[in-house]
Amino acid sequence: MRWLGFDWGENFFHASDYFPQLYEFALDLIRQGKAYVCSLSADEMRDYRGTLKEPGRESPYRDRGVEENLDLFGRMKAGEFPDGAHVLRAKIDMASPNLNMRDPVIYRIRHEEHHRTGDQWVIYPMYDYTHCISDALERITHSICTLEFEDHRPLYDWVLDQLAVPCHPQQIEFARLNINYTVLSKRRLIELVTGGHVSGWDDPRMPTICGLRRRGCTPGSIRNFCDKVGVAKRDSCVDMGLLEYCIREDLENSAPRAMAVLRPLKLVIENYPEDQVEEIEAPCHPNDPALGTRRIPFCRELYIERDDFMEDPPKKFFRLGPGREVRLRYSYIVRCTGVVRDESGEIVELRCVRDPDTRGAAPADGRKVKGIIHWVSARHAVPAEVRLYDRLFLEEDPCADKAIDYKSHLNPDSLEVLTGCLAEPSLAGAAPESRYQFERLGYFCADRRDCQPSKLVFNRTVTLKDTWAKIEKKD
RNA sequence: UGGGGCGUCGCCAAGUGGUAAGGCACCGGAUUUUGAUUCCGGCAUUCCCAGGUUCGAAUCCUGGCGCCCCAGCCA
Predict the structure, then answer these.
(1) A361, A353, A355, A387: which is closest to A457 by C-alpha?
(2) Which nt has its C1' nearest the CA of A439?
(3) Which nucleotide is nearest, taking the CA of residue A127 and each C1'?
(4) Res. A175: pLDDT tops 80
(5) In this predicted model, what pLDDT tens digit does every residue of A210-228 receive, in sequence order?
(6) A111, A274, A308, A373: which sits with the fewest CB atoms below 10 Å from its CB?
(7) What is the ipTM of this complex?
(8) Listed residue (A373, A375, A414) closest to A392, CA to CA
(9) Whose CA is nearest the C1' atom of nucleotide B32?
(10) Phi/psi of residue A392, each to 5°?
(11) Residue A448 binned pLDDT confidence (cut-offs 50, 70, 90)
(12) Which nucleotide is nearest to A440 (CA to C1')?
């Protein structure tokens, strides 16, 4: 949460901070005759609770006297009873149409170690009882929660109305955030983790804060996303595209540019001297000089993206093809003069010639070269592993059909690991969590766990908007 | 009528009696050494439906319809 940009200062509290007061308030409820120890088993209690349409029945223990209740509750606290033997219940109304008001349990016995209070307690208060009192003790004015607690509000208010608390906060419920092509409930996320469907809570495909962080999202992009989504009371599902837009929006301005080739194809410039190397100074950002420049070595043998060459390109494709011209970003215009194939016929190398007068300049004869592609120097590039992430689920709403396990909609291709990638040498010392735009490809983040100087590992946070892919799909 | 909520563009979402904001997506077009960015322009005569009240209704009333939540000693 701090990483996200929030800080409570001295106001970071836990419900367990209030265990002593909560106990005292329970005693108070008992003395007022508004709480009693019930010794029904869980099954019996369910039976007594009634149904959605029929009222419940009162527990046979409902009329225990104050002294007996005090004694029993004290002994519950002292650890005299096993788990489940007794509970403390609020005495409200077993006929209430709101099931939460049918004498809800407020304390139960749990002989379990607590992560903050250790073995100090063997009875623990229930959420409905704890939350409202905690809010009041903290002088909360508005207690925001999700829609499923609307039915609990009468209980929230009831508890506070019975007790001498410093104030009565107002609970207001709002819809939870849903995003398509993923799941956000804790229960499902934990299932993905324990079931080994992802590598952990911070797997870059997880919609958790630590997952988004490792993926490369900035705190600002997440905050901006939340602002754009808004808060309302109706069940909704936000398009993942909006999150992606927010990430791009932030990174567009802040991420330095670099060139990296994910699927390398060798390109040899026949009319470029074997031993020559040019250091090209390139801006780290096209529109913001403040990000500075870096030097990129250029020589006779380069690698370009396999996708940037097509042997038989369609009319609208303006990258490289036999006889075609293309601009090497920040550098020369080259023309493809031939291809070299291996025994199986696969193209393993392109032969090109450069136009020597076009480095950083338009062709003197005024001809237009629309295609611009990225590249790295074969001699200077540094190897890298790049992890390509895609949506976690194939279905927009993986949980739509209750009869089908949402996990069966998991996208088998949500992670693609590319090991033979090549990056420009300025990336050699990339620090973990540093973010870049690999030009024409997308935004990438050095993995905070696995990226090391000796082994670069980048996560693709999000691709660039790809108009070409859209055109291609249409045709 | 068991109770509690919600229905405004493909997705979010303002609007709470004065004549439908905004964002994403989408579709044009301009600029561009990233098919990126940026920039201009388009995109709900209509607010779940049907009646009613009103000079005037997404907003008020009545009746429907649809969707979500609740029977943990979970949160």
Answers:
(1) A387
(2) B34
(3) B75
(4) yes
(5) 999 999 999 999 999 999 9
(6) A274
(7) 0.95
(8) A414
(9) A286
(10) -70, -30
(11) very high
(12) B34
* Two tokens, residue A358: 């076009």
In this structure, what token pair is assigned to residue A128? 């409905």
pLDDT for residue A401 is more than 90? no
The protein residue nearest B67 (Cα–C1') is: A235
- Å: A108 CA to B6 C1': 35
The amino acid occupying position A42 is A
- Which nucleotides in chain B have some atom under 7 angstroms from a protein Cβ? 2-8, 10-14, 22-27, 33-38, 67-75
Q: At A42, which helix (H) or strand (E)?
A: helix A42-49
For A232 and B54, how far is CA from C1' in angstroms? 30
Beta bridge partners of A109: A123
Name the residue closest to the C1' of B11 by its CA.
A239
- Name the nearest CA neighbour of A426 among A285, A248, A291, A257: A257
> What was the pLDDT predicted at A387?
98
Amino acid at A212: L
Rounded CA gap, A198 and A206, in Å? Answer: 8
Contact call for residues A278 and A379 (beta carbons, < 8 A): no
* Cα(A376)–Cα(A280) distance, integer angstroms: 12
CA A82 to CA A94: how far, in whole Å? Answer: 26
Phi first, then psi: what are they for A415, rounded to 5°? -135, 130
A337-391, pLDDT tens digit by residue? 999 999 999 999 999 999 999 998 888 888 889 999 999 999 999 999 999 999 9
Q: What residues contact A216, with CB distance under 8 A and at least 6 apart?
A: A204, A247, A435, A443, A444, A445, A459, A460, A461, A462
In whole angstroms, give the CA distance from residue A52 to residue A148: 16
pLDDT at A360: 87
Q: Quick check: A121 pLDDT over 90?
A: yes
Residues 6+ positions from A312 with CB-CB distance below 8 Å = A321
Q: Judging by DSSP bridges, how do beta strands A87-90 and A105-109 pair with one another?
A: antiparallel
- Tracing tokens 């005090």 back to the chain, one arrives at A70
Nucleotide nearest to A316 (CA to C1'): B35
Strands (E), A242-319: 257-258, 260-261, 264-269, 278-283, 293-298, 301-305
C-alpha distances (whole Å) from A276 to each of A179, A304, A330, A414 are 52, 19, 17, 42
| Nearest CA among A99, A92, A89, A90 for reference residue A54 | A99
Instruction: Note the helical H segments in A230-277.
Output: 240-254
* Alpha-carbon span A379 to A301, nearest angstrom: 7
* Identity of residue A172: I
Q: CA A193 – C1' B35 distance (Å)?
A: 38
Q: How many helices (H) and strands (E) does chain A have?
A: 10, 22
